[in-house]
Amino acid sequence: MNKLTSGLLALLLLISVIPAFIPVVTAAPSTWFVAITGNDTTGDGRIGKPFATLRKAVDMSSNGDTICLRVGNYNNVIADNSNGFQINRSGTKTNPYTIMAYNHEKVILNGNGKNLNLYRAFLEIRPPYHNITLRDLTIENITRDAVAVNGDETGPIKDINIINCKFNNVTYSGVQVFTYDAITLGWIENVTVRDCNFYKIQMGESMGESNVFTGVRNFYIYNNTFRYCNKIVLGVGEGVKNGQIYNNSLQLNRSSSGEGIYIDSATYNGQTASHINIFNNVIFGYLTDTVSAGGINICGEFNGGKIDNISIYNNIINLSCDNVVDPSNIYLAGIELKLQSESSTSTYKDVTIKHNTIFIGQGNGKPIAIHPYRTTLARIIIANNILVTNETRLTTYQILSSHMSWTEREGIVFLYNNTYNYTHGVTNLGRWEGDTHLAETTAIIASPEFMDYTSYNFLLKETSPCIDAANEIYTIFYDIRGVPRPQGAGYDIGAYEILSSGDSTLPVISQVGVIISNPLDTQTGYGWENFTCGITDNVGVLSAVLKFTNPDQSTTNIPMTKRTSTTTYYVNRSLNIHGNYSYRIQATDSSNNIALSSTFMFSLAPNWDVNLDGNCLIYDLILISNHYGGTGASGWIREDVDNDGQITVLDLVYISDHYGTSWWT
């Protein structure tokens, strides 16, 4: 052996023994991982050795850390009959304490129907903890509130963000932000709920509302979708100040009386509901004939409550009752100033309602209703709204005031350039106490000429009398889509601003694509598909629709969502039928010009075609045998055919059941 070789061997031997004499010191991670396949005893919280439970990760973490959960259904978050999961860490403004799904993986925090103690929530944030973010989580099957942010006598809370989360099947509130006396206990400050999806909330129809924000200062609720939420979908009140509620889509549940957005004051220490902007929302409900409903409700719920500086603009409200037997028993209100009781002393001042499009179909409907007495009102502005009723069997009015006559409203309620229409005959205009068929001298009493109200397209035709006809003092400089106002000689009435110049430029569709989960999986709840494209237009994009043809040649049309502050539109799906798909994108601009993209194709293989060659043969069995005995997260590789997190004989059996089958056509 020459000297060079022996020297190298000696060096390698020295390097190998040095670690035995040097203590290894490792810093605690600032990012901690949790996985279904993790272990709270042997794991260290790193991505290669994750913990098994969220509780372990939170307990090991420090303020300002991030908890990343890997894909899976976590039903071990809380115990039965517990006080819920306490998030007992904080962050800072620039470095919030964060609990999130890793890399947008599908993470379900499953309450699994476990009982929670009275007044407790599945996830709780209480003083003194603050600066906390929840992101990309699905929270479902909850027996009380899903997420509660509660201030109390120990102090206020601030800087809470709930972003891109899904809430499904919740007995009480999806999100409850609550302190009952903000002046004494301190405000909950800086709360944001955005890009979230709420589905089947307040299923118990009992204490609370679908979502509650009380005692909050500086709050932002935007880009959220609310479907099948009972009672009040979004309740804001009892000492709230400086709020923005915008770009939300709210559906009123077909079988539950309630309101879309409900603002109320309270009497605790003279608290008010003040300085709140509600804009660019779409509120709709096609209800049964046993309920009543409201789009946006402003209410002094207790004596002494104060409401001021509320602006409601650029909203579309579309309410109707199906199969109405007696429409006089169905009360529908688009925007309502509500009177809780005949003896109420709550006050309303500086409320502006402008540029809304309100359509009330079947039922005893009023696009705008004003119920408080004149002595409790001051400076109520109603301007540039389109107010339409569509009931054929009884007299309906576009504005109703139950405690104030036409002359009594002077100097209190100011009306400018509203459009009144009854689609089936004589327009009945406003009904003020003792006075009927009245409207302001600047009103337009005619059909607004919607593109097609029967299909809920409330864009205006170019012949609409609402174009260029708005009052220019009480206006807004953008419409519901962000199209600048004015586009023509003047501002348009209603939520939309329309080009009157014969715009024929089509929207431009680009960068169409689909990203498919890796591994590909067609079992429900595991695989996913993300469709994206870019859309631009010379004026503004009205809508984007994904139109795809399924393997059985049936077609599906799905509205696409615009990513905030970009020109990107997207749809997330979880398709569970294997086969060949084709799809196109349809874009419609604000002038009703329609563009279609080219046709694109993709294929989804069944789970039994492990190697994706279109057949189930010996190669698929070999791939499984090569990983036999392996474990991981459910469906972590294609070889985990049945998605149970382990490669066993069951996967081989699954393949053998389909052996010799081809799916590619």
Can you describe this structure?
The chain has 665 residues and is mostly beta strands. The protein has four domains: 180 residues, Pectate Lyase C-like (3 Solenoid); 231 residues, no CATH class; 97 residues, Immunoglobulin-like (Sandwich), CATH 2.60.40.2550; 40 residues, no CATH class. Helix 4 runs antiparallel to helix 5.
Secondary-structure blueprint:
Elements: H1 3-21, E1 31-34, H2 54-60, E2 66-69, E3 72-74, E4 85-86, E5 97-101, E6 107-110, E7 121-125, E8 132-135, E9 138-142, E10 145-150, E11 158-163, E12 166-170, E13 175-178, H3 182-185, E14 188-194, E15 197-201, E16 211-214, E17 216-222, E18 225-229, E19 234-237, E20 240-246, E21 249-252, E22 258-264, E23 272-279, E24 282-287, E25 293-300, E26 306-313, E27 316-321, E28 331-339, E29 347-354, E30 357-360, E31 364-370, E32 377-383, E33 386-389, E34 399-401, E35 413-416, E36 419-422, E37 430-432, E38 435-438, E39 444-445, E40 450-452, E41 457-460, E42 508-516, E43 529-536, E44 541-549, E45 555-559, E46 561-562, E47 568-573, E48 579-589, E49 594-596, E50 600-604, H4 618-626, H5 649-657
Parallel strand pairs: 1-2, 2-5, 3-6, 4-7, 5-8, 6-9, 7-10, 8-11, 9-12, 10-13, 11-14, 12-15, 13-16, 14-17, 15-18, 16-19, 17-20, 18-21, 19-22, 20-23, 21-24, 22-25, 23-26, 24-27, 25-28, 26-29, 27-30, 28-31, 29-32, 30-33, 31-34, 32-35, 33-36, 34-37, 36-39
Antiparallel strand pairs: 37-38, 40-41, 42-43, 43-47, 44-45, 44-48, 46-47, 48-49, 48-50
